[in-house]
Amino acid sequence: MARSKEKTPKKPKQPGRLKQMWQVFQMTRRYDSNIVWILVLAFLIPVLISLALALLIPGSNVFTMVLWIVAGVLAGILAMLIILGRRAEKAAYSQIEGQPGAVGAVLRSSLKRGWVGSEMPVAVNGKTQDAIYRAVGRGGVVLISEGPKTRTARMLEEEKRKIVRIGGNVGVTVISVGPDADAVPLHKLARRLTRIKPTLTKAEVLAVNNRLNSMGTKLPIPKGVDPMKARPQRG
User: Fold this and answer.
1) Which residues is 142 bridged to in the sheet?
2) What is the DSSP secondary structure assignment for residue 223, as one 8-state letter?
3) Cβ count near 233 (within 10 Å)
4) End of a domain among 96, 111, 139?
5) Domain that includes residue 60, residue range
6) Structural domain includes residue 204
7) Which of 20, 148, 39, 31 is nearest to 94 (CA)?
8) What's the confidence (pLDDT) of residue 222?
9) In this structure, are residues 115 and 193 in contact, taking their beta carbons and an 8 Å threshold?
10) How many distinct structural domains can be found in the chain?
């Protein structure tokens, strides 16, 4: 009896680089109506500057003018890609800004090299869903509050006391992400961390992060379910 050969399903083909860029542009345009004009200006300005330099520099011939124009075109494309990436990131974060866990999403996907953070908060208010997140890097320990300052101030003070007790003389910086006027916008959070003055070495960052992780976190458990007292049902 012949064995039936099972056909292995083919993996879906990944979209090409140009198609991915077009999808990013379409997504950004839905949340940023000015993106088209911004990208056009980003492309034209370097091209016009290079063209002006090619015409104004004495002794230019056709070959050098072509080189200047090609350099301007390449610079314009590079400027478009950089601006599109930043505007796309801002548009993506604008969709989750104000929602619980938004800061965790930034720490998971956008932390720069030298920083360690977790998408899980170190403290949560079960009623209001306000949360405190922690990141450790060359700039020391950073506590990031998610929610209004009036509701997160107490949790911040408790976490700062824990860090001082365990981390010793490590500097602690507090950043607020929320509805307050002086709060840091969600899409600028990762860049805000890189502006903190370095005070630790790479080895010290790892040691401090390990010490802080060793104290664990106490997150609220929904009422009515106690996993330590749960019993299996009998058949």
Assistant:
1) 135, 173
2) T
3) 5
4) 96
5) 17-96
6) yes
7) 31
8) 39
9) yes
10) 2
Indicate whether 86 and 153 sit together in one domain: no
| Token couple for 63 | 């070959």
The confidence score (pLDDT) of residue 29 equals 82
Question: Rounded to whole angstroms, how far apart are CA atoms 97 and 25?
Answer: 20
- Amino acid identity, position 134: R
Q: What is the per-residue burial (b if ≥16 Cβ within 10 Å, else e) of 193-222?
A: beebeeebeeeebeebbeebeeeeeeeeee
In this prediction, residue 66 carries a pLDDT of: 87
Residues in Cβ contact with 137 at an 8 Å cutoff, skipping those fewer than 6 apart: 114, 115, 116, 193, 196, 200, 205
Q: By the 8 A CB rule, do 142 and 134 touch? A: yes
**List of the chain residues with pLDDT < 70:** 1-16, 167-168, 216-235
Indicate yes or no: pTM above 0.70. no
Is residue 181 situated within a structural domain?
yes
pLDDT computed for residue 15 by the predictor: 62
Phi, psi of 206 (to 5 degrees): -65, -40
3 assigned to some structural domain: no
Backbone φ and ψ of 148, nearest 5°? -60, 145
Q: Quick one: tokens of 157?
A: 């003070």
Residue 218 is predicted with a pLDDT of 54
Same-domain check for residues 126 and 65: no
